[in-house]
Amino acid sequence: MDIKIHESWKPHLVEEFNKPYFKDLINFVKCEYKNKKCFPPGNEIFNAFNHCHFNDVKVVIIGQDPYHGEGQANGLCFSVNDTVPHPPSLINIFKEIESDLGIKYPKNGNLLRWAKQGVLLLNATLTVRAHEAGSHQKKGWEEFTNAVIKVLSNNKNGIVFLLWGGFAKKKMKIIDNNKHYILTSGHPSPLSANRGYWFGNKHFSETNAILGEQVKRDVIDW
User: Fold this and answer.
1) What's residue 1's pLDDT?
2) Phi, psi torsion values for 38, nearest 5 degrees
3) Domain Uracil-DNA glycosylase-like spans what residues (predicted)?
4) Exposed e or buried b for every residue in 55-89, given b needs 16+ CB within 10 A?
5) 65 catalytic, yes or no?
6) Angle, vertex CA 160, rays to CA 139 and CA 39, nearest 5
7) How far apart are CA 95 and CA 85, in angstroms?
8) Engineered SS bond to 73: which of 48, 67, 107, 120, CB 3.0-4.6 Å?
9) From the candidates 2, 24, 56, 65, which is the catalytic residue?
10) How far apart, in whole angstroms, are the C-alpha atoms of residue 122 and residue 141?
11) What is the mean pLDDT of the chain?
C-alpha cells in the first residue's frame, strides 16, 4: 500500500512515516486489506489530506472511525459517497446547519465540497474492517492522527477546531488554544443529540464568524 498523500503534507509528516509504529501500522493495514474486506477503498484512505491541502486548512472536524457499511466511507469523517443514504449523525449535522444558517437540507451527503474549502475531515482511525466498528483502533492510526493535529497546531494559526463528543474533546490537550479557536459540543449521534447536547450549538455560524471577523479568511459555504 503506497502512502498516497498530497505533497503539501509530506514535509510535515515525513518524520511520522519513518517511525517504527507507522511502518507496523502500514503492514497491518496491507494485511487487512489483502485478507478482509475493509473501508474506505485503499486509494481513499488519505482522502482527508488529498482534498484539503496543508496550506488550505481553516477548519478541523474530528471523527472517530470510518463508516463500516458497504459503500459508505470515502476517507472524510461523517461523509458518505454520492447517493448513499445519510447515517444518523450526518442527518443531525445537516439539521443543525439548516436551523443555524437556514440552508436547505442537502440531498447529497458527500462532504467533499467542505474539504475543498479548507475543512479537514479527519477520522482518528483511518480504516476499518467491514461491519466491525473499531476493528482498526489502537493499531497506530490514533498516534498518527494526533501527530497531524499537533503539526497543524504548531505550524499554523487561526484554525477553528470543532470537537464533538467526548472522544474529540480529548484532543484539546494537543491544540494550542492561544493560537487557535476550539468549539466543543455533544456528538451529533442520536444518543447525544436527543439528550440536548448537539442541537443549537450554532457551530457553523460561529465558525464563519470567527473566519470572517477574527481570522480574515473566506467563510465556509456549508
Assistant:
1) 57
2) -135, 160
3) 50-211
4) ebbbbbbbbbbbbbbeebbbbbbbbbbeebebbeb
5) yes
6) 30
7) 15
8) 67
9) 65
10) 11
11) 96
